[in-house]
Amino acid sequence: MALYKRPNSKFWWMKFYFGGSLVQQSTKVANRRDALTIEAAFRHELALGRIGIKIKKDFPTFEQSVNDFLEWSAVRKGATACKRHRFSAIALRKYFGKTKVDRIKAKDVEGFISWRFKQPSIKTGGTISRESVNHELRVFKMIFNRLIELGTVSSTPARFIKQLPENERKFHVITPLQEKAYLLACPPILSEVAVIMIETGMRPKEVFTLKAEKVFFEKGYLQITDSKTPSSNRKVHFTPKVKSILQRRMEKFSEGWLFPKKDVSGNPRYSSMHFWHLPVVKKLKFDFDLYDCRHTFATRAIERGIDLITLAALLGHKDTKMLSRYVHPSEEMKADAMRKMFLAKAV
Predict the structure, then answer these.
(1) Is 191 exposed, middle or buried, given 0-12, 13-18 or 19+ CB atoms closer than 10 A?
(2) Rounded to an integer, what distance in angstroms lies between the CA atom of residue 47 and that of residue 38?
(3) Residue 237 main-chain phi, psi, to 5 deg
(4) pLDDT tens digits, residue range 50-75?
(5) 123 and 261, same domain (yes or no)
(6) Which residues of 84-114 are buried (b: 16+ CB within 10 A; e: fewer)?
(7) pLDDT for the residue numbered 344
(8) Cβ-based neighbour number of residue 81 at 10 Å
(9) Is the pTM above the cut of 0.70?
């Protein structure tokens, strides 16, 4: 019979093999004679089949769980969503790696958050944003929700971890004068991207990933097929300005990417756009992001009488809920609305 005491424990433990399986557990008594009696009784009960051996569950590592989740995401959520999940999982893999999922606790998730803010942004190399960390936390919770569905674990260690408060960025509607100055100061490729965004409301990535075979001049539109959500995959009807830019691009690149995916340094152009944009706005002393070209399109559309349902479709939203983030009424619009209210009341 094998009895032993663990360091810092007053109880005797029994350890032996039965039927090829290891039995190792506490007798919960401090007296050795009592422990021997308990061990003998336990062996007797095992022999009679009255009790079974508790086999320890083999939990997967976090790395294995991520791989399983991404396979599930590709089938259930689609290629675009899976691509976002895969990107958000990069830092999670690095931190939790080969840790067994049952060993990950709430304090470990808090540790990840602290560690993450010491790491550079994967996209820009600069300081990581709260928004990015929140995306990663959401994917972490999705991975554990998947494990709960499979019966691997019973709860998520991030259950009581709240999303970080995000810095509310002030969106900017570009004035015609700012637009003109910005386009003149931009590198040609960035100028073309900005014009397409202002004229159509497309996202920066939708412009940079546009392919020649998705442009139909005879029908007057281009087709977006690989955007961030299913509703974002849409037909975008282009204006004369946009048509002119696309025709010039088609002369250079008759097939494949209209905005080649790699620059001279071998970096994706979509990731480099911030490095082109920032020096221009700094020189001009403007305070707006390239994405504000999309907000400018939305605001101008409302000013010109486009209804909300149509605008949501143009921007690639499934409904009008998101429009409050995109449309920013000018003081002139608000003053005009009050004039209309006054005239209606006078009648």
Answers:
(1) middle
(2) 14
(3) -80, 130
(4) 665 554 567 899 999 999 999 999 98
(5) no
(6) ebbebbebbeebbeeeebeebeeeebeebbe
(7) 61
(8) 15
(9) no
- Tens-place pLDDT, residues 100-124: 999 999 999 999 999 999 987 766 5
Q: Give the SS3 label for residue 244.
A: helix
* Residue 284 domain flag: yes
Residues 32 and 98 in one domain: no
Domain-embedded: residue 161? no
pLDDT score at 170: 66
With beta carbons less than 8 A apart as the criterion, state whether 104 and 92 touch: no
Do 200 and 319 lie in one domain? The reply is yes
Q: Is residue 273 part of a domain?
A: yes
Tokens standing for 7?
A: 């360091």
| pLDDT for 108 | 95
* Residue 279 exposure: Cα atoms within 13 Å on the Cβ side: 8
Q: Are residues 326 and 242 in the same domain?
A: yes
Alpha-carbon torsion 15, 18, 20, 23, what sign? negative
Cα(275)–Cα(79) distance, integer angstroms:
28
DSSP string, 36-69: HHHHHHHHHHHHHTSS---PPP-PPBHHHHHHHH
Range of the domain at 117: 62-150
Query: 261 falls in which pLDDT band (50, 70, 90)?
Result: low
The kind and range of the H/E element at 91 are helix 79-96
Residue 143 within a domain: yes
**Tens-place pLDDT, residues 224-250:** 987 777 778 999 999 999 999 999 999
pLDDT digits (tens, 9 = 90+) for 179-203: 999 999 999 989 999 999 999 999 9
Q: Which two tokens stand for residue 323?
A: 């429009």
What does DSSP say about strands 12-18 and 221-223: parallel, antiparallel, or unpaired? Answer: unpaired
First-residue to last-residue Cα distance in the chain: 102
